[in-house]
Write a structure and sequence with these properties.
194 residues, alpha+beta, tt1808, chain A, six-stranded mixed sheet, 3 helices, 14 strands
């Protein structure tokens, strides 16, 4: 992760970052890092599809949400890109078409990578709490875990934790059940079958 320290970063600084990098501005600092690896992409994509198919398609599921993959959030002077986020439909008009969201989501999910884990936990989670995001999920593909947080005041409370192949039903999507193992990359077959 690289950050710019000479002065508070601006949106113009962010726009100058090469497209092969992810960029965010948190607490006036521009952070950049390479695009995520396959394990990260698999977890984020699988979760996006599961939540989106159940809540964002209007095909008989519980509905009531807009789900976005890697949305650009403009929260005051902070610009962040969670892996997945969701808004209750009554908070965002269906006809609006925009590149960045300036309304804090009702749920975010960060997929933890070795290069971003500390940033996600130490910088972004407090920002999300301060901006009023009620629910946060942290997915760690290396540990094969899901931590489910609920905001209480300006702090996060661990509401549930899942690991490995657990079946998951978690707020704010309690109606949906999915196998946590569906988020992980399949292990390659053993070279020496026993």
């Amino acid at each position: 992760m690289q950050k710019l320290k000479e002065r508070p970063a601006t949106y113009e600084d962010l726009l100058k970052v090469p497209e092969h990098l992810v960029a965010e501005i948190v607490e006036g600092e521009l952070y950049t890092w390479p695009r995520p690896r396959r394990r990260h992409e698999r977890a984020a994509g699988a979760l996006y599809r599961r939540i989106g198919d159940a809540y964002d398609d209007g095909n008989g599921g519980p509905g009531g949400w807009w789900i976005a993959g890697e949305p650009e959030l403009h929260l005051g002077t902070e610009i962040v890109v969670p892996d997945v986020a969701g808004w209750r439909r009554e908070r965002i008009a269906a006809h609006e078409d925009f590149a960045a969201y300036d309304i804090a989501p009702d749920w975010i999910c960060e997929v933890i990578s070795p290069s971003t884990g500390r940033h996600d936990r130490v910088r972004k989670l407090p920002l999300y709490a301060r901006e009023g995001v009620p629910h946060a999920w942290l997915v760690d593909p290396a540990l094969q875990t899901l931590e489910v947080y609920r905001r209480e005041g300006t702090s996060w409370h661990l509401a549930a934790a899942f690991g490995g192949e657990d079946l998951v039903r978690a707020e704010p999507f309690e109606e949906l059940e999915f196998r946590l193992a569906d988020l992980w990359l399949a292990e390659p077959p053993s070279a020496n079958p026993a």
